[in-house]
């Protein structure tokens, strides 16, 4: 159903509320520490909610629903690796505890302390490219979602993108992380309502037996068994699971949007507790939208595009009046994600690329006020780029795989270099350079291959990137050590 007047009022009220939050929070932002990590004052309850809201946007629902629509119940296995990794990191403090104790604001900052400024700069470039290419498809996918659900003509996709991003830009520029964290409470309530309503009402409309029977009839065993035809050859088999566990470990220690939340926590104990409990929430973050895609597959008698399945399904089953609340929840999710991602990737550009260049030229530390000004400028620059990228880039294969592979332009090298940089005394800068360089090869190849090859070999490209990064770090560190010893002998 299309929006009625009540739906429009609900959404408009929420947008005004978010806008006012940015204005109110501006007076609490006096420096770069307030702007990026909320002066490290985030407690457990708000941190848990904020972590969840940051990593749920309309695009999250769309790519998970696409998996459910195209692969059936078998795709539910994708929801489990992040839960396991979150719990492991939160329980053990592996990598994250040392990072919290260092009180850094960005991941590349660790590399300047552990290795050198050159490694930080190199990682900053890879993170900026990978993160912004990843983020770059969000506006196009989500603007189309908004237009489909609300009934706005498809020709206005660009207008929708610009309006949405402008709203986010204003309140992010004004309040930074403080503004984002404040609005997460409201977003969490709306998200919870929307997720429960669509799931329960969808089952009521379609019927559980009809959902199961439709999937098994059209997909066969492949639609319910992720390891069909075998554990090795299955689309979601052992290779896929290894890739996902490595990928999610890297995401949770090196993905800037998540690490900013981690670094905003008031101490290491709080940060670890947030991670431990986030696992359960992230399990449902995957399972519920995947199930929506499965319901959409059972609901529609004619095939639709995997990326269009969810918005068409929501428009078809949700009654007017309720639509406004659910749409506000979905919009809330996206605005939180957009704000966090704009802040995250712009902070990498401002702190780890521009900041490093200015410091190397002037030989002086940049003042907090100038860092804040640079960060706000880069937020606007990133927004302009992602609008352009969304308009011209065509996604091939699963959207989920595209997002994972663009992140892998820096994640394999980041995970290996972080882990060995923290726990292996012999890790050296040459190893870090090689780890980042070799780790980018598989995802770069993936992005330029045909859709058929992408879907068949995605898992190999996935875990292969981490394997090459490990080889690069170990080999490079030993080469560095040998060269250093040789130089010392020559000097002696």
Architecture overview:
With 492 residues, the protein is mainly alpha-helical. It has 2 domains: 396 residues, Sodium/glucose cotransporter, CATH 1.20.1730.10; 85 residues, no CATH class. 79% of the residues lie in helices and 0% in strands. The chain is built from 22 helices and no strands. Helix 5 runs antiparallel to helix 14 and helix 11 crosses helix 14. The longest helix has 50 residues. It is globular, with a radius of gyration of 23 Å. 56% of the residues are buried.
- Using the coordinates above, name the CATH class of the largest domain: Mainly Alpha
* SSE topology string: HHHHHHHHHHHHHHHHHHHHHH
Per CATH, the architecture of the largest domain is Up-down Bundle
Q: What is Rg?
A: 23 Å
Compute the number of structural domains. Answer: 2
Can you tell me the overall shape? globular
- Can you identify the CATH superfamily of the largest domain? Sodium/glucose cotransporter
Number of H- or I-type helical stretches:
22
Number of strands: 0
Average pLDDT reading: 84
Q: Which fold name fills CATH's third level, the topology of the largest domain? A: Sodium/glucose cotransporter
Q: Extract low-pLDDT stretches.
A: 29-40
Strand content: under 5%
């Amino acid at each position: 159903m299309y929006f009625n007047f009540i739906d429009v009022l609900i959404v408009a009220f929420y947008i005004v509320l978010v806008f006012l939050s940015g204005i109110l929070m501006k007076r609490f932002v006096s420096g770069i520490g307030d702007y990026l990590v909320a002066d490290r004052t985030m407690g457990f309850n708000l941190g848990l909610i904020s972590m969840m809201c940051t990593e749920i946007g309309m695009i999250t629902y769309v790519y998970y629903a696409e998996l459910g629509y195209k692969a059936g119940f078998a795709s539910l296995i994708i929801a489990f690796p992040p839960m396991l990794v979150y719990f492991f990191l939160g329980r053990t403090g592996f990598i994250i505890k040392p990072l919290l104790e260092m009180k850094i604001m960005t991941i590349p900052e660790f590399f300047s302390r552990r290795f050198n400024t050159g490694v930080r700069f190199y990682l900053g470039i890879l993170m900026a490219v990978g993160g912004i290419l990843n983020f770059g498809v969000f506006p196009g996918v989500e603007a189309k979602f908004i237009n489909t659900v609300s009934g706005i003509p498809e020709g206005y996709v660009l207008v929708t993108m610009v309006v949405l991003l402008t709203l986010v830009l204003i309140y992010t520029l004004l309040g930074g992380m403080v503004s984002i964290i404040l609005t997460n409470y409201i977003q969490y309530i709306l998200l919870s309502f929307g997720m429960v309503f669509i799931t329960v009402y969808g089952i009521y409309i379609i019927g559980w037996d009809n959902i199961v029977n439709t999937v098994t009839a059209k997909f066969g065993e492949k639609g319910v068994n992720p390891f069909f035809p075998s554990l090795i050859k299955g689309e979601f088999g052992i290779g896929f699971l290894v890739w996902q566990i490595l990928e999610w470990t890297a995401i949770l220690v090196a993905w800037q949007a998540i690490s900013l939340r981690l670094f905003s926590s008031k101490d290491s104990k709080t940060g670890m507790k947030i991670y431990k409990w986030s696992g359960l929430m992230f399990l449902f973050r995957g399972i519920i939208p995947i199930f929506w895609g499965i319901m959409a597959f059972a609901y529609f008698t004619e095939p639709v595009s995997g990326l269009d399945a969810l918005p068409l399904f929501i428009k078809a089953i949700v009654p007017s009046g309720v639509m406004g609340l659910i749409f506000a929840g979905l919009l809330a999710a996206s605005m939180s994600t957009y704000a966090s991602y704009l802040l995250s990737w712009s902070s990498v550009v401002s702190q780890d690329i521009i900041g490093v260049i200015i410091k190397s030229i002037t030989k002086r530390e940049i003042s907090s006020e100038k860092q804040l000004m640079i960060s706000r400028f880069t937020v606007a620059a990133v927004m302009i780029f992602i609008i352009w990228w969304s308009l011209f880039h065509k996604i091939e294969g699963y959207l989920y795989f595209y997002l994972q592979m663009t992140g892998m332009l820096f994640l394999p090298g980041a995970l290996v270099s972080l882990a060995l940089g923290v726990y292996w005394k012999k890790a050296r800068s040459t190893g870090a350079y090689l780890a980042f360089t070799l780790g980018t090869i598989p995802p770069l190849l993936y992005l330029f291959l045909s859709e058929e090859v992408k879907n068949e070999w995605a898992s190999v490209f996935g875990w292969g990137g981490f394997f090459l990064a490990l080889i690069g770090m170990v080999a490079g560190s030993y080469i560095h050590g040998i060269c250093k010893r040789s130089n010392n002998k020559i000097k002696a």
